[in-house]
Amino acid sequence: MGFTVAVAGASGYAGGELLRLIATHPELTLGTVTAASNAGVSITSVHPQLIGVVDGVFASTTAESLGEADLVFTALPHGESASIVAHLPAALPVVDLGADFRLTSGAAWTQYYGGSHAGTWEYGLPELPDRRAAITASHRIANPGCYATSVALGLAPLLNAGLAEPGDIVVVAASGTSGAGRKASESLLGSEVMNSMTTYKTGGVHQHTPEMEQSLASVCGETVSLSFTPMLAPMPRGILATCTARVQGGVSADDVRAAMHAAYAGEAFVQLLPEGMWPRTADTLGSNSAHVQVALDSHAGRVIVVVALDNLVKGAAGQAVQNANLVLGLPESTGLPIGGVAP
Question: What is the pTM (predicted TM-score) of this model?
Answer without folding.
Answer: 0.96
